[in-house]
Amino acid sequence: MEDGRLNDITEEQIAILTHTEYKAVGKRYCGGGTDMEALVDVGLMKSLGRMAFVPDEYFTITEKGRQLLFVIEFGKVMERKTRKN
Length: 85
Fold this sequence. Notes:
About 50% of the residues lie in helices and about 20% in strands. The protein has about 80 residues and is α+β, with helices and mostly antiparallel strands. It has a single domain, classed as Arc Repressor Mutant, subunit A, CATH 1.10.10. The termini are far apart. About 15% of the residues are buried.
């Protein structure tokens, strides 16, 4: 995903956002990688730094990331409704 190109978001990146928003304790995601770097670059996630007891960096979802998840989820709901008709 290039900087600013949200249309290029992958299923793996959506899974990171979803996990962070709905399942991660304190909405903190531990660990980085290329998918996380891409999410941070476009402002969907931000770094929280490192914790004393874990060597990996922690991240959290931004308001922009939450808004994107809402759009994705709303699109899925509308798609299901359209298929039923």
